[in-house]
Structure formats: C-alpha cells, structure tokens
C-alpha cells in the first residue's frame, strides 16, 4: 500500500467521523424531542412518533439512504450525496436515541419526581431542574453505544457514492488488486475510533461517579 | 372563620385504584400546631391517605381542606368546583411539605442545593436569603458541616434529616411524614425522631405515618388507626394505647407488645 | 406507468429478494447460534490463553462494520485461495458477524444468572452435561431472548448491505427496479414494508418468549 493510498483512507476516515458527528448533532437532540413527546403523552403525536420509531428501527440504513436520495427529489427536495447521507444518518439514529432517552425518563426514580411535585414544582420545572441534569448521565452509556453503532453503520452511505473509510479501502483494493492490506488498515482505523469513543465514555463516567457517587441512579 | 378551621381536614375521602377501593370515607381533622399519628397494618391505606392530602393522589371522592381552603379543586362562581390547573396545584402544594420513607433527595444537588432548590425555583425567594435560611435549618438538625456534601456520602439518618430541612425550608403550614424511619438502621432512628419531637414541641402541624409506637404515644396529640381503608379509631393516644376500642386495634397493638 | 404496477410486474425479482434475505437470515441464525453458544462457553470456561484469544477475535469483529467484513470475505479471501459466490460470502459474513455479538449476549446473560440454582443442581447430583442442558441453557435462552431478537433484527438490516457485493436480496430488487424504470417511490416503500414485516415477526416471537419467561420468573 502506497502513502497516497493511505492518505485516501485517512480522508475516508475524516468523512466517516464528520458524517457520524453531523448525524449525532441532529439525531441526539431530535431523539430527545421525540422522547419528550412520548413522555408527555401528547395525543396523536405520541402515536405518530411510535410508528416512526418502529418503522425506522426496522429499515436498513442502506435502504433508507437510497429512499432519501432517490425519492426526496421526486418530491422536489434535491439533495447532494453528503447532505442526503447526513439527513439519513440523523433520521436513522433519532429513533434509537428516542428509545434511550425514553427509557431514562420512564425509569427516572419516581420518589424524586414526587418530592419535586410535593415541593410545588410543575412538570416543566421538575424536568428542567431535577430530571434533565441527571438524565444525560443515565443515558450516556447507551448513547455512546448507539454512537459506535452509528459509526459502524456509516459504510451504508457508500451506496449513494459517498467515499468513507470502507469505500475508500475497497477502491484502493480494486485499483491495486491487493485488497487485504487496505481492509486491514481500515479495520485498525475503526478499532482506534471506537476505542477513543469508549475510552472517553469511561473517563466521563468516572468523573460523574467521583462527584455524585453514581453513574446511573 | 378560617382561623378556627383545622390545619387539615379530610372529609369522606374515598380512593379507588382501577376500581379497587383503597380508602373509604376517611374523615380526619388535624388541629393547628398539633401532631397526628397514623398507624395501622400494612396495606391499610395510610400512605395513600397521606398522599391525598397534598394531591399526589387524587381522592376519587371527598374533600381535603387546608386551613379551610379546598385542596386540588377551585370553587367555581357558578357553584360546584373545577380541578386546579397545574400551576394552581403547584402553588397549593407549597403549603404542605412532605418527608418520604426513602428520603427522595435529589442526588445531583449538594445537601444545601437540595434544601434551597424549591424555595429559590418554586417560591422565587432570593438565593442569599434561601441559603442563609438553609444553613440555619441544617444547623438545627446538626448537619451544617455537610452543606456541601452530596447525598450519597451521608448515612440514612443524615439523609432523612436533610430531607426534613428541605421540607421545612418551604415554611409549610403542614408537614407530612410517610414512615420517615422505616428505611433506617435501628441506631439512626433515634436521631430522626429527636428532630421530629422538637418540631412537635415548637408547634409545627404534622401528620406522621409511623410504625414507631413509642413515638406515637409520646408525641401525638391525635391517633388515627387505619384498617382496610377506613379510620376505625381516632382520638387521644393515651386512650388508644391503654384501652383500644376495637378488636382490630387490640390485635394490632399486641403485635408491638403493647 | 404506476410505480406499484411496475413492482407487481417485477414481483419475481422482489420475491427472489425476499427469499434470499430470509434464507440468508435463517441459515445464519441456524449456524451462528450454536457457534456463539460455543463461543460463550469458551469465554467463560476455557483456560486463560484460549479465552483471551476468543475475546480478542470477538472484540475485533465487533469493532468493524458489517460491510467491511463482507468485503474482506468476498474480495479479500480469494487472494488467500478461498473463493465464495456472493450468496455464500453473504452467509459467511452474516454468520461470523452475528456470532460475535451473540456470544457476547449469551456470555453476559450467563454471568447474570443467579448461581444458587446451579449449586442446587450440583447438590442434587446433576452431571455437567445434564446441568448445562437442563438448567443453564434454558435459563440463558429466556434471559437473552429479547437481546437475541434485537440482534436478529440488526442481522436482517445488515443483510441489505450485501447488495453491494451483488447478493440479490430485497434492497437489490428495489434498487434495480428504480434504476430500470426511474420510479424510486414504490419499490423502496415495498422494500421497507418487507423489512418492517420481518422485524414485526421477530418482535412477536420475542414477546411470546418473554411471556413464557414471565410465567416462570414473574
Ligand atoms: N398506585 C397504586 N395502584 C394500585 N394500587 C395501589 C396503588 N398505591 C397503593 N395501592 C394499593 O392500595 C392499598 C393501600 O396502600 P398504601 O400504600 O396506602 O398502604 P399503607 O397503609 O401505606 O401500607 P404500608 O404500611 O405497607 O406502607 C394497598 O392494597 C396497595 O396495594
Ligand atoms: Mg405506606
């Protein structure tokens, strides 16, 4: 494998990371919004979100990205491959994040909420002051797992021509008739990326545990 | 006359969960400055009743009056009532504070943070004032040194004393306790009961669900004995503990060696 | 022409896709469940160096994307003299990839089981083989069913990526109709509907197992 090939791989890695981060930046807050809709049991919206979650959780990312890339233009929404990939990743990760946030909300210790209510807090105030500051800590672990899943799911967007790590590796392999080295290098890059994410999570959880004595109530 | 009204007056409170009757026609008055202890076997509806007082549970029928004003509902001008809005209910709840069996401290806030949280964010008191108040309250339960500690570093007894400070910080008209010592190791029960005794002496109005019969006998002004969702005896603790009127109460007390 | 009419006209392609997806998933489950059960046994009970090696292999597999593994098997292994056609490469990929996740699921379900029951069984004179068959495995099966169900749904979804290595599965069918007739909506809606149906079937199965578990464990 030449240095140029290696550079191609690294560019691919940059694309993978950028796509994942962009997907997360939209998908995680969107998931929280969806979870809050379900938590508050807003009629109709609640059922719509539930259906959306069930549907997307069953749809392969590859099929979803093809759908977004080919079908949205027929509705007058033309997207380039990269924006289409970001939109799909966000819409795809949001339902999973929604379920994580929702589990955090429904498993939130009831006595703490009652204590807040007994002090005269409204639901909104209790959410802002009592639930929110603890919720993200409880959800951190599952959200990070979801993050690594998203990272590993990004190769699906190769199908609409986005060149991320896996696609870059297969191109190099096809050009050099020697596919194993680039695949091996790609494996190392993925492993490193995931190790970094998991390590960051450990550090944050240790900090939380040191300060509050728990990572999840 | 609002002033002559009892601090808490429950009138014919009934409560059903999914059609199962848990409280039936419970009526009980708690005079201002007095302590009422609620005793009875497990599952008799004591907690449910206490939670009806601050509307954590809504009575199916019946009324709760706090110093003469109805809880949870607002009399409408045309006669009849309507349920309180979330805002109104939140405001009404600030008049009653509650201490929970499992403390229910907020683990992401320090001890001081727990005590000032509701005064600052619900009552809108200035922070400095709330902090000053909180330090005084913590000092009186002997925990001024723990103000900056997080709840998980405290013992059970200390946690419950913080919870009592948190309840007092609201300057409530009535203080509710649901088995405040049941989750504690035996050697910590005393320190919490001590604080409650002092509060009773100072004229705090309290309703206490408890299995501590000695405490009930010494501190209560009124005893209410619950059985199967009804109040079947109320009155003076001396009379209740020495000469219970009903068979059920006699059998209940025997189990405590009384 | 209406998109759905085209899909109907090309139904053979879709049915072939459905058949390939389902057959790959079923075959991969049939092989990867015993394989991963064995993997879990190795992780928990094998001597240190063997367990370490198994752990490293499983962790490595769990670090790479499914598509990368598929590429390695379809394009990389022929270099070492191992050649599969697309369907078989797909099956090998799905089996290995899922076995790694399932092994981890089984291992944690196993470690979370209360140990008293095993001790009681030993006290009653169960021999290891019987102990595993009658006491350990059924409990692991119940405890891990929801996660296994989730993993099977992941597996169904991963199988779509095999389209890239030319396996003629559901998404391949949808995409080729789109490419030939320029009507993306109907074929992709039908494809997504098929995936949805498959995962609803898996979820129904998980619910049945879960109700069996509730009966036993409350
Ligand atoms: N949210 C609920 N839904 C359904 N039933 C409930 C609910 N809360 C309480 N109950 C039932 O109401 C009855 C009274 O419960 P409650 O907790 O008031 O009893 P208690 O006297 O406080 O008992 P303990 O001394 O054990 O705390 C019980 O039979 C209980 O199962
Ligand atoms: Mg109770």
Automatic annotation (TrEMBL), chain A:
GO biological process, alphabetically ordered: amino acid transport
Recorded hits in CDD domains, A to Z, give: TM_PBP2
Instruction: Tell me which residues make up the ABC transmembrane type-1 domain.
Output: 13-201
InterPro entries from the UniProt entry: AA_ABC_transptr_permease_3TM, ArtM/GltK/GlnP/TcyL/YhdX-like, MetI-like, MetI-like_sf
Q: Where in the cell is it found?
A: Cell inner membrane; Cell membrane
Query: GO molecular-function annotation terms?
Result: transmembrane transporter activity
Tell me a GO cellular component: ATP-binding cassette (ABC) transporter complex
- PROSITE patterns the record matches: ABC_TM1
Q: Where are the transmembrane segments?
A: 12-37, 49-72, 183-204
Annotated Pfam families: BPD_transp_1 (PF00528)
Query: Membrane topology for this entry?
Result: Multi-pass membrane protein
Q: Which UniProt keywords apply?
A: Amino-acid transport, Cell membrane, Membrane, Transmembrane, Transmembrane helix, Transport
For this UniProt entry, what is the primary localization, expressed as one broad class?
membrane
Q: Which PANTHER family match?
A: L-CYSTINE TRANSPORT SYSTEM PERMEASE PROTEIN TCYL, MEMBRANE COMPONENT OF AMINO ACID ABC TRANSPORTER
Q: Spell out the family assignment given in the record's similarity comment.
A: Belongs to the binding-protein-dependent transport system permease family. HisMQ subfamily.
NCBIfam families on file: HEQRo_perm_3TM
Q: What is this protein called?
A: Amino acid ABC transporter permease
Q: Which organism is it from?
A: Hansschlegelia plantiphila
Cite the source lineage: Bacteria, Pseudomonadati, Pseudomonadota, Alphaproteobacteria, Hyphomicrobiales
Automatic annotation (TrEMBL), chain B:
Q: Which UniProt keywords apply?
A: ATP-binding, Cell membrane, Membrane, Nucleotide-binding, Transport
Among InterPro entries, the record links this protein to: AAA+_ATPase, ABC_ATPase_HisP-typ, ABC_transporter-like_ATP-bd, ABC_transporter-like_CS, MetN_ABC_transporter-like, P-loop_NTPase
Name the membrane topology term: Peripheral membrane protein
Cell location: Cell membrane
Keyword Lipid biosynthesis belongs to the record: no
Highest taxon of the source? Answer: Bacteria
> Lineage of this protein's species?
Bacteria, Pseudomonadati, Pseudomonadota, Alphaproteobacteria, Hyphomicrobiales
| Any GO CC annotation of this UniProt entry | plasma membrane
Note whether Flavoprotein occurs among the keywords.
Answer: no
Name of the protein this chain belongs to: Histidine/lysine/arginine/ornithine ABC transporter ATP-binding protein HisP
Automatic annotation (TrEMBL), chain C:
Q: Give a GO cellular-component term.
A: ATP-binding cassette (ABC) transporter complex
Q: Does the keyword Signal apply?
A: no
Q: Principal place where this protein is found?
A: membrane
Describe its membrane topology.
Answer: Multi-pass membrane protein
Question: What Pfam families does the database record attribute to this sequence?
Answer: BPD_transp_1
Q: Which chain regions cross the lipid bilayer?
A: 22-44, 56-74, 86-106, 140-165, 185-206
Write out the annotated subcellular location: Cell inner membrane; Cell membrane
**GO terms assigned for molecular function:** transmembrane transporter activity
Top-level taxon: Bacteria
Keyword Membrane among record annotations? yes
Question: Which residue range or ranges hold the ABC transmembrane type-1 domain?
Answer: 18-202
Q: Which InterPro entries match?
A: AA_ABC_transptr_permease_3TM (IPR010065), ArtM/GltK/GlnP/TcyL/YhdX-like (IPR043429), MetI-like (IPR000515), MetI-like_sf (IPR035906)
One GO biological-process annotation of the entry reads: amino acid transport
Tell me the keywords, alphabetical order: Amino-acid transport, Cell membrane, Membrane, Transmembrane, Transmembrane helix, Transport
Recorded hits in PANTHER family, A to Z, give: L-CYSTINE TRANSPORT SYSTEM PERMEASE PROTEIN TCYL, MEMBRANE COMPONENT OF AMINO ACID ABC TRANSPORTER
Give the UniProt family note: Belongs to the binding-protein-dependent transport system permease family. HisMQ subfamily.
This protein's name = Amino acid ABC transporter permease
Q: Which organism is it from?
A: Hansschlegelia plantiphila
């Amino acid at each position: 494998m030449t240095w140029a090939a290696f550079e191609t791989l690294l560019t691919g890695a940059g694309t993978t990371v950028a796509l994942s981060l962009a997907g997360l930046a939209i998908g995680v807050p969107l998931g929280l919004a969806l979870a809050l809709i379900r938590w508050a049991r807003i009629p109709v919206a609640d059922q719509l979100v539930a259906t959306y979650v069930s549907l997307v959780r069953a749809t392969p990312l590859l099929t979803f990205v093809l759908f977004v890339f080919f079908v949205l233009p027929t509705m007058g929404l033309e997207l380039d491959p990269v924006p289409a990939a970001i939109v799909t990743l966000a819409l795809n990760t949001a339902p999973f994040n929604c379920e994580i946030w929702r589990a955090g909300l429904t498993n939130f210790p009831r006595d703490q909420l009652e204590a807040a209510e007994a002090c005269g807090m409204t639901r909104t105030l209790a959410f802002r002051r009592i639930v929110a500051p603890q919720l993200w800590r409880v959800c951190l672990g599952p959200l990070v797992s979801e993050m690594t899943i998203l990272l590993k799911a990004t190769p699906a967007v190769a199908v609409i021509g986005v060149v991320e790590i896996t696609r870059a590796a297969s191109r190099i392999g096809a050009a050099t008739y020697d596919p194993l080295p680039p695949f091996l290098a790609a494996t190392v890059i993925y492993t490193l990326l995931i190790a970094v994410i998991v390590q960051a999570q450990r550090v944050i959880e240790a900090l939380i545990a040191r300060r509050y004595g728990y990572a999840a109530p | 006359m609002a002033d002559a009204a009892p601090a808490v007056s429950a009138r014919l409170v009934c409560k059903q969960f999914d059609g199962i009757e848990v409280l039936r026609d419970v009526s009980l008055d708690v005079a201002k400055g007095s302590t009422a202890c609620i005793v009875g076997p497990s599952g008799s509806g004591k907690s449910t009743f206490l939670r009806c007082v601050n509307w954590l549970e809504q009575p199916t029928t019946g009324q709760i009056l706090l110093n003469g004003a109805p809880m949870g509902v607002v009399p409408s001008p045309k006669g009849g009532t309507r349920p309180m809005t979330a805002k109104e209910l939140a405001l009404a709840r600030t008049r009653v504070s509650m201490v929970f069996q499992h403390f229910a401290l907020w683990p992401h806030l320090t001890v001081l943070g727990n005590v000032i949280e509701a005064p600052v964010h619900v009552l809108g008191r200035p922070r400095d004032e709330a902090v000053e108040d909180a330090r005084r309250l913590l000092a009186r339960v002997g925990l001024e040194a723990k103000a900056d500690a997080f709840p998980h570093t405290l013992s059970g007894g200390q946690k419950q004393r913080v919870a009592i400070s948190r309840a007092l910080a609201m300057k409530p008209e009535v203080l509710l306790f649901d088995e405040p010592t049941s989750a504690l190791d035996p050697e910590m029960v005393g320190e919490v009961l001590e604080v409650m005794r002092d509060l009773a002496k100072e004229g705090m109005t309290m309703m206490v669900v408890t299995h501590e019969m000695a405490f009930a006998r010494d501190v209560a002004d009124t005893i209410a004995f619950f059985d199967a969702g009804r109040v079947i005896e109320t009155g003076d603790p001396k009379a209740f503990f020495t000469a219970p009127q009903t068979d059920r109460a006699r059998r209940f007390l025997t189990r405590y060696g009384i | 022409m209406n998109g759905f009419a085209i899909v109907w006209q090309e139904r053979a392609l879709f049915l072939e896709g459905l058949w390939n997806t389902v057959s790959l998933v079923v075959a991969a489950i049939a092989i990867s469940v015993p394989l991963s059960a064995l993997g879990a046994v190795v992780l928990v009970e094998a001597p240190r160096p063997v367990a370490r090696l198994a752990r490293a292999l499983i962790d490595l597999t769990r670090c790479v994307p499914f598509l990368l593994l598929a590429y390695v098997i379809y394009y990389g292994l022929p270099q070492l003299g191992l050649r599969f056609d697309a369907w078989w490469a797909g099956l090998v990929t799905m089996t290995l990839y899922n076995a790694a996740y399932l092994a981890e699921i089984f291992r944690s379900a196993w470690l979370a089981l209360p140990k008293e029951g095993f001790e009681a069984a030993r006290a009653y004179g169960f021999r290891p083989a019987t102990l595993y068959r009658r006491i350990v495995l059924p409990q692991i099966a119940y405890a891990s069913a929801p996660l296994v169900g989730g993993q099977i749904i992941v597996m169904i979804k991963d199988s779509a990526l095999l389209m890239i290595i030319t396996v003629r599965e559901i998404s391949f069918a949808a995409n080729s109709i789109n490419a030939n007739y320029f009507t993306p909506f109907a074929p992709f809606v039908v494809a997504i509907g098929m995936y949805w149906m498959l995962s609803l079937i898996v979820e129904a199965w998980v619910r049945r197992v879960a109700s069996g578990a509730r009966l036993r464990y409350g």
